[in-house]
Amino acid sequence: MIVAENITFKHILRGVSISIPDHGVTGLVGPNGSGKTTLLRCLFGALKISGGKVEINGKDLNSYRPRELAGEIAVVAQDSGEPPQISVAEIVRLGNIASGGQNDEIIYDSLARLGMEDRATSYLNQLSGGERQRVMIARGFAQAPRHLLFDEPTNHLDIRYQLEVLHEISKYPRSVTVVLHDLNFALQYCDYVYLLAEGEIVAAGEPKEVFQPEILEPVYDVRVTMRDGILRFERKK
């Protein structure tokens, strides 16, 4: 379990506490600038928190060695930062190596889950933005950590691959934490959500409990209705 207690980061996060279990899909949702990505980055140490603490399995995040942490957490960020002239298979292999393995079957199975097995020998600079995103997700699967963290995994994807990626993420047998802008995707694929606004948690629970008009309307400044299990939004007149 990942537990963040009363964490702060500059002026962006203000006393945020969350618990991420070892199974299921946890969503971080909220308007632009609410602190979703900052919170995610604090959970794996990419940002040094100003106050509070983050623990993984009861152990302080800062006490983990890199190889040990790689077995606990893998991150799929919006900007991979990978060199362009590296093959798709080698990128995914890096994930498997990070957690102490080097298994070709896992590498190609991870690519196949994202429909990218035919591009294994292609270079990163030969791929579209959506294809690169799917490769980075495959690398996360190949790392096979206890916790997979995603920052907007549907970015750059057309609707078909948005649905396929979220379907594969939801089937991950351990824990997934995902930053999402689309509340209907969160409603469909998340088991639990934290709603952020202005650096604070304003609601937490199952999506159907959190995504109520009286909760969402003041956060997003829109009118919200639920029809046939789908959230609908209208501009306030």
From TrEMBL:
**CDD domains, per this entry?**
ABC_Iron-Siderophores_B12_Hemin
> Which PROSITE patterns does the entry link to?
ABC_TRANSPORTER_1, ABC_TRANSPORTER_2
Which residues are listed as membrane-spanning?
Answer: none
Sorted alphabetically, which keywords does the UniProt record give?
A: ATP-binding, Nucleotide-binding
For this protein, the record's SUPFAM superfamilies field holds: P-loop containing nucleoside triphosphate hydrolases (SSF52540)
Q: What GO MF terms are annotated? A: ATP binding; ATP hydrolysis activity
Keyword Nucleotide-binding applies: yes
Q: Any keyword ATP-binding?
A: yes
Annotated PANTHER family: ABC TRANSPORTER ATP-BINDING PROTEIN (PTHR42794:SF2), HEMIN IMPORT ATP-BINDING PROTEIN HMUV (PTHR42794)
- Protein name, entry field: Iron complex transport system ATP-binding protein
Report the source organism.
Actinobaculum suis
